[in-house]
Specification:
It comes from Candidatus Enterococcus murrayae. InterPro entries: Glyas_Bleomycin-R_OHBP_Dase, Glyas_Fos-R_dOase_dom. This is VOC family protein. The protein is about 20% helix and about 40% strand. By secondary structure, the protein is of the alpha+beta class. Strand 2 and strand 3 form a beta hairpin.
C-alpha cells in the first residue's frame, strides 16, 4: 500500500547550492550527507511534511545510472496566500513568472538555481 510520504528527486549541478536555495525559500534541511562520494540533501517544507525533495548530484547520477532521466518532474506547490508568497520570493531574488488568476485561484512559477521550473497555486 502507498502511504502519504512522497519524495521527489531533483538533480542539481551543485547540491549544496541547491539546498541553500530551498532553505532561502523557508524549507528545512532534513539531511545532508555524502553517499558513495557524492552529496545528497533532503529538504522539506517542515520536519512534519509528508513531501520531501531529495537532491542528487546530476553529474554523479549521469555517470552511475544510465536509466536516470534528465527532465525534472513538474511540481505544483500549494499556498494559502499566493500573493504573500510571491512577495517573499521577490525579496530573496528568485526568478519569478507573473502572477495570473485562473478562476478563483492565483498561479505563478519560479526557477531554481539549475533552471528547473516550479508552479505555485492557491488562494
Amino acid at each position: 500500500m502507498f502511504n502519504e510520504q512522497v519524495k521527489v528527486i531533483l538533480y542539481a549541478n551543485d547540491v549544496k547550492k541547491a539546498s541553500l536555495f530551498w532553505q532561502s525559500l523557508g524549507f528545512e534541511v532534513l539531511s545532508f550527507e555524502e553517499v558513495d562520494g557524492s552529496q545528497v540533501a533532503e529538504v522539506a517544507m517542515s520536519k512534519n511534511s509528508t513531501t520531501h525533495l531529495v537532491i542528487y548530484d546530476r553529474e554523479f547520477i549521469e555517470q552511475n545510472d544510465d536509466e536516470a532521466t534528465e527532465p525534472s518532474p513538474a511540481l505544483i506547490f500549494g499556498s494559502d496566500d499566493v500573493v504573500a508568497l510571491y512577495k517573499k520570493l521577490q525579496k530573496v531574488d528568485v526568478q519569478l513568472g507573473d502572477v495570473a488568476q485562473i478562476g478563483e485561484e492565483y498561479v505563478f512559477n519560479f526557477v531554481d538555481t539549475d533552471g528547473n521550473y516550479f508552479v505555485v497555486s492557491g488562494k
